Amino acid sequence: MSVARLWLAPNTEEEFMSLLGDAQDASVNPVDCKTSSTAKSAMDKVMLHKLCEGVALNSTAELLPPEDGDTVDTPRKALGSQTEGALLGFATACNDGEFDYAEMRKTANIRRVLPFSSDRKRMSVIISRPG
Questions:
Q1: Which of 23, 57, 60, 74 lies most in the core, judged by the most C-beta atoms within 10 Å?
Q2: Are 19 and 42 in contact (CB under 8 A)?
Q3: InterPro entries attached here (predicted)?
């Protein structure tokens, strides 16, 4: 499994940037996102870091090590939710394989975790930030 479509709201809820694997709706500013390099070019470093942090903290999946011959854009296999694994793999690829989601989870000041609920259709993590 891999990430095929991603929406971000960089400034306001009304301002959506769409990073699409296959541009189907031209009204939402499609940007080709078939590889991590196109996603990196569409986002600044702060936005990319926040996205990757959100993926790491709102996930319980673990990525398996890359197999021989895998490139940075080869989807990684995951233990746990395959959707969460695809998001972790995407975040790892966006950081050229240097994304330590386990360390990020360990060092985050997590205040509360709301587990995934089929009623809410989401998982939430509340963290404290310095300052």
A1: 57
A2: yes
A3: ATPase_P-typ_cyto_dom_N
